[in-house]
Amino acid sequence: MLSILLLLLLLLQSTLSFQVHRHHTYQRTRCERTFTALNVHHICHKTLNIQGCIDFYSLFNYTVSSTFRASSAQCAWLRCNNTSSSNPIIELIEIPKPFHNKVPKPPAPPLTETPLIPSYNHVAFLSPLPLGTYLPSLSSVSSSRFSKELKILQPPTQKQIDREIWEMAYVQGPDLTVVELLYKCATLPDGVGVE
């Protein structure tokens, strides 16, 4: 009698499991048909100095497209001045002055001491040139425009991701934010270098 009861419970459990799985699959398929891949509209960065951020991101060809207020905070949307509309907007939100002393300022990540651990929170830009050429040029522009040299947190290194060879470096932005610069060096032929 006990074995028959166990057998019935197993059958009931597998039937319920199948129905739940079938329902879950239907829901996922329905969602996949309803929602297509979304484009990134903007990334947001809180700052203590909105003008410093506007100046910094101008190095990457971003300019102010809109300004507005959110409660007592001054905000700006920055758009890239190139022909591609696929670049996301950078939204800057300046923390109001009365709250400045309440915002802890973390130290810059020690990327040069631990180069294998990049900052988890960062923005990445594609470089038009190899980073050995682009970084000195970018630093020179920063010095001439703002009298500030670009602080390099991690010099260029190369990394293979799938079949692509990427050059990457990290620089420090305003409010100790981390900005990654990427340059695609090469794409390996099919079957070469991929494990």
Q: How would you describe this structure in keywords?
A:
195 residues, alpha/beta, 2,3-Dihydroxybiphenyl 1,2-Dioxygenase, domain 1, Signal recognition particle alu RNA binding heterodimer, srp9/1, four-stranded mixed β-sheet, 3 helices, 8 strands, 30% helix, disordered N terminus
Account of the protein in words:
The protein is α/β, with parallel strands linked by helices. It has two domains: 39-102, 2,3-Dihydroxybiphenyl 1,2-Dioxygenase, domain 1; 106-195, 2-Layer Sandwich (Signal recognition particle alu RNA binding heterodimer, srp9/1), CATH 3.30.720.110. Helices cover 30% and strands 33% of the residues. The chain has helices at residues 2-34, 50-58, 131-146, and strands at residues 42-47, 62-70, 73-80, 89-94, 122-126, 151-161, 164-172, 178-187. It has a four-stranded mixed sheet with strand order 1-4-3-2. A four-stranded mixed sheet has the order 5-8-7-6. Strand 3 (73-80) and strand 4 form a beta hairpin. The longest helix has 33 residues, at 2-34. The relative contact order is 0.13.
